Amino acid sequence: MIEQVEIGALHFDDYKELLSAMKASYQGWQGGYWSADAIQSLISKFPEGQIVIKSGGVVIGCALSLIVDYKKFGDVHTYKQITGNYTFNTHTRKGDVLYGIEVFIHPDYRGLRLGRRLYDARKDLCENLNLRAVIFGGRLPNYHEYAGQLSPKEYIQKVKNKEIYDQVLTFQLSNDFHVIRVLNNYMPEDEQSKEFATLLQWVNVYYEADRKNLFNVKTYVRVGLIQWQMRLYKDMDEMFSQLEYFVDSVSAYKSDFAVLPELFNGPLLAGFNHLSEAEAMRELAKFTPEIKDRFREMAIRYNVNIITGSLPSIEKDSLKNVGFLCHRSGAVDEYEKIHITPDEAKHWGIQGGNKLKVYHTDAGRVGILICYDVEFPELARLLADEGMQILFVPFLTDTQNAYMRVRLCAQARAIENECYVAITGSVGNLPKVENMDIQYSQAAVFTPSDFAFPSNCIKSEATANTEMILIAEVDLSLLDELHSYGSVRNLKDRRTDFYELKLRDGDLKTEY
């Protein structure tokens, strides 16, 4: 199983691991590898441009870059020219293009979309530095197999049309880069490419010619809510086939979060209809560790933070209703349902948890309350006091009355805590599953109530009782303005001199 994935700056101490990963990535390569002196020079000249990806603290890939004044080279150049004969003296902070000179992923970690993360990190760097484009020369490692039949132009066109698979060019095209030229003699030692290369470009649409080196902070967060159809599955593999389809879809829209409903795995209870309801739920809980591991791997592979709704879990012989925040880095946090409904306690024997935290993610500070918990305003207020920006509420409701309790309370939490609240549940029915009969849901994203937000406080909402995904984008910077300049300021205007709210067993801490 892949360990926690981290992307950060390359340091010289990483060189031995970098070299090992590079050699594994370029098996059969005729050219040389980056020397320690070359890496030291790159780090010295442009530290933020040298990006490394690690798994379990070990280097498994990297992306190396320079900033160049592109008009000095134009579209016809060689690798040796663009790197200044490997001295990197072509790098200049006054340049206008981020030029990629290396990217690779260790072969043992391919297929997890980690290369895409490196390319996305380059794009973010390009935007932050206000450079007009990312450009690089791309190898054509499979071209030698077709060189006698196709010209480079014909080969590239067939790769574009998906008639030929080229592990490098196919990947680059799928990451929004387009070919602007064929280069001859770009890298003479590259026998596989027959010395040809593609010149690829990604254009920064936010580029401003009169602004340089101004770093922007990304404030927009995209949320993908999965309104899940309850249907029977023969086993967990079949259920995950459907789950992966939705996670893949949410990821394709470049969402930062994929959110599932409470007890979405209820259909698997069908295999335990011969047991009592409480016994059946405990049997279902035995699947939870494997489900957590599968979601963790999907979060890494699809580069999206997954909020797994909730699942039954046995902890010290107690049955609880828990969920997992699977970060796309590979880290996993657990949250618990604190308030248990009468039916959950009566039929399943579920007990309430005691965990309440704000989680720091790469897309903001989030809190998670499961269904009934959102009907208790104290919990969301405690989270808001710790800086929560988005509250996620996975729920499971059977009737419209039950749904409206969750919905209206969620809207109230957004207004009184000056945050966004995203809710999603399940739809459909399970007539062959005991005590998991019918579901009602309308996923939605709610906002505070002020001039910068929709007048009805609804950012977006799904079609009721229809299986679908709801994609919504929220601007976290609007919350900062609201806290200080809103028409009313619910967080600041509380009379803490008159009353206070706190946990019985200590302070609430934000998880980093």
From TrEMBL:
SUPFAM superfamilies: Acyl-CoA N-acyltransferases (Nat) (SSF55729), Carbon-nitrogen hydrolase (SSF56317). Keywords: Hydrolase. CDD domains: NAT_SF, nitrilase_Rim1_like. The keyword ATP-binding does not apply. Residues 221-476 form the CN hydrolase domain. InterPro entries: Acyl_CoA_acyltransferase, C-N_Hydrolase, C-N_Hydrolase_sf, GNAT_dom, UPF0012_CS. Residues 5-165 form the N-acetyltransferase domain. One of its GO terms (molecular function) is acyltransferase activity, transferring groups other than amino-acyl groups. Coiled coil: none annotated. Signal peptide: none annotated. It holds the Pfam family Acetyltransf_1. Belongs to the carbon-nitrogen hydrolase superfamily. NIT1/NIT2 family. This is Carbon-nitrogen hydrolase. It comes from Flavipsychrobacter stenotrophus. The lineage of its organism: Bacteria, Pseudomonadati, Bacteroidota, Chitinophagia, Chitinophagales.
